[in-house]
Write a structure and sequence with these properties.
Blueprint lengths: L3 E2 L2 H5 L18 E5 L3 H13 L3 E5 L2 H11 L3 E5 L7 H10 L6 E5 L4 H9 L4 E4 L2 E2 H13 L12 E4 L2 E4 L4 E4 L2 E3 L3 H11 L8 H9 L8 H14 L7 E4 L3 E4 L4
Helix pairs in contact: 3-4, 7-8, 7-9
């Protein structure tokens, strides 16, 4: 089977360290959809995620994943790229077309930067390469959930305003000049970081650390990619608010 690592505590039950449980906004259990054609692997993942008190459904192929996505309405998805019928990139594309914006963590044996960027370009939010540790995967999912629609705002004032751009951290709504803008969880977190620091230049390294909590082998390609996504949604047809400072990073400021 594909190699997965985990320590004894993760496999057997609670550790002596305090653990903060994450719940949905309505107090119910987080819903996770795990998609992989290796039954032993999905069993291990389900066990680790049940320990987080999350509700877990598993799928072994792309068609089953799409059906469960519509019926189960997961809060986060673990999705293998290599599936026996349709690949994970197509599954994610169809999920997004169905209106499902749940954060997606790709799970794959591929390890090239091109594969990582392909997954993120398709609308994914994170990437774990096999072999992996269950502790790392759970930590990544918890990070995605904190940035997702189920997350509770951790800022004193939930409404951020820069010019005619408004972001509500409680409702996860974004408007520019009164017009609603739909963002993925990662796009929302990137915009929130920029808006919490208006007129301040943020380096690619700072953005990687804050938005993704780790880097992609030191590559800045992911930041550039998501900045371009934001520009298409925030600045398209309007005076630009997201600016590149050559050699330094990016900033947001009110349009002139």
């Amino acid at each position: 089977m594909r190699k997965v690592t985990m320590n004894a505590r993760a496999a057997s039950g609670p550790s002596s360290q305090p653990r903060t449980l994450l719940r949905r906004a309505d107090g119910s259990a987080i819903r996770v959809l795990v998609v992989d054609d290796e039954a032993t692997l999905t069993d291990l993942l389900a066990m680790a995620l049940h320990y987080e008190d999350w509700e877990v459904k598993t799928a072994s192929n792309g068609q089953q994943a799409l059906q469960l996505s519509r019926e189960f309405k997961p809060d986060v998805v673990v999705l293998d790229i290599m599936l026996p019928d349709i690949d994970g990139l197509q599954v994610l594309s169809r999920m997004r077309a169905d209106g499902n914006e749940a954060p997606v963590l790709f799970l794959t044996a591929k390890d090239s930067l091109d594969d990582r960027i392909a997954g993120l370009t398709a609308g994914g939010d994170d990437y774990v390469t096999k072999p992996f540790s269950l502790e790392e995967l759970v930590a990544r999912l918890r990070g995605l959930l904190r940035r997702s629609r189920a997350a509770v705002a951790d800022h004193d004032d939930p409404v951020l305003i820069v010019g005619d751009l408004v972001l509500d951290e409680d409702s996860y709504e974004v408007h520019r000049d009164g017009e609603p803008i739909q963002l993925t969880a990662t796009e929302f977190e990137l915009l929130r970081f920029l808006m919490r620091n208006p007129r301040r230049v943020l380096s690619k390294a700072q953005i990687l650390d804050r938005v993704w909590s780790y880097d992609f082998g030191g590559s800045s390609s992911v930041v550039e990619l998501y900045i371009s996504y934001l520009r298409k949604k925030i600045d398209a047809g309007r005076a630009p608010m997201i600016h590149t400072v050559r050699g330094a990073g990016y900033m947001v400021k009110a349009a002139q």
